[in-house]
Design brief:
The chain is of the alpha+beta class. Helix content is 28%, strand content 25%. It is flat.
């Protein structure tokens, strides 16, 4: 994409030859890392806006867009959101202009109906609905695979907000989220280290302990509160800048946090002073 700036390459190319050296290049790259991180965020933002600008309500394209936006919450990344036709909920008989929401008796013999004084059991007008006129509650159904790391209420709110943006006026929908049978929830999550201290350029690995061990959902979602200080991928931490960050992991909705401090390395000439 044209918004991507090759900052690391520019740092190598613009450094004078007499100042060359891996340590000096890494030092310059660490200084421009906040700018690089900001540029990466802008590239992701621009890419999403380009997609949204081209988005339509066509089913195949819209399914792809929803999966791109929400697949981070899927338990199995191979699963996909699907848009299906609604299920019929119509019945052969229904009442018109009903004044009562309670069920009532359908009398076969009207003479028997005269024996009751209950107004809810009095005969009422019916229309016959043929099978060709199936009744639907919604225009379409959005089926979502099992999710993790977020509550269903919050996920439905975010998904509805996106669907409402591109939904055709007058169309209604129903969101159905799959739930695993005999689901064993996660009770607690802990990390191998609660506090870590690293130098810039150091790496570390965190392991996760999940209880109970036979929990159904074991997929871990990692995040860093300050990517300019440290990044994390599948528990592997990379210290990129001096400062403080929280490395968090969420499994089955249960979080755990490691406090991380990254220090700038002390040069030998500073020690001699």
């Amino acid at each position: 994409m044209r918004y991507k700036l090759p900052l690391d390459r520019l740092a190598n190319q613009l450094t004078p030859h007499y100042l060359g050296g891996r340590k000096y290049i890494l030092f310059l790259q660490s200084l421009i890392y906040p700018l690089k991180s900001l540029n990466d965020k802008f590239v992701r933002f621009a890419r999403e806006r380009h997609i949204e600008a081209r988005m339509t309500s066509q089913i195949i394209y819209f399914e792809w867009f929803l999966n791109q936006k929400f697949e981070q919450y899927f338990v199995d990344k191979r699963d996909r959101i699907c848009i299906k036709d609604p299920e019929t909920i119509g019945v052969d008989l229904y009442k018109e202009f009903s004044k009562h929401s309670k069920p009532f008796v359908v009398w076969k013999n009207l003479k028997e109906a005269d024996m009751t004084d209950d107004p809810l059991e009095k005969p009422r007008e019916f229309y016959y609905c043929s099978e060709e006129k199936a009744i639907y509650t919604t225009s379409f159904v959005v089926r979502v695979p099992m999710i993790q790391g977020i509550s269903q209420k919050e996920f439905v709110y975010m998904l509805s907000s996106v669907i409402n943006t591109y939904n055709i006026a007058g169309k209604t929908y129903l969101i159905k989220i799959d739930i695993a049978p005999n689901d064993i929830p996660v009770q607690s999550v802990s990390l191998s280290d609660k506090v870590l201290t690293l130098n810039i350029g150091d790496t570390a690995e965190l392991s996760v302990k999940i209880l109970p061990e036979n929990a159904t959902i074991k997929t871990a979602i990692w995040s860093s509160s300050n990517p300019s200080v440290a990044t994390v991928t599948e528990g592997n931490i990379n210290a990129v800048g001096a400062g403080y960050a929280q490395i968090a992991v969420t499994v089955g909705g249960k979080p755990a946090v490691c406090e991380l401090i990254v220090r700038a390395p002390v040069e030998e000439d500073q020690l001699s002073v």
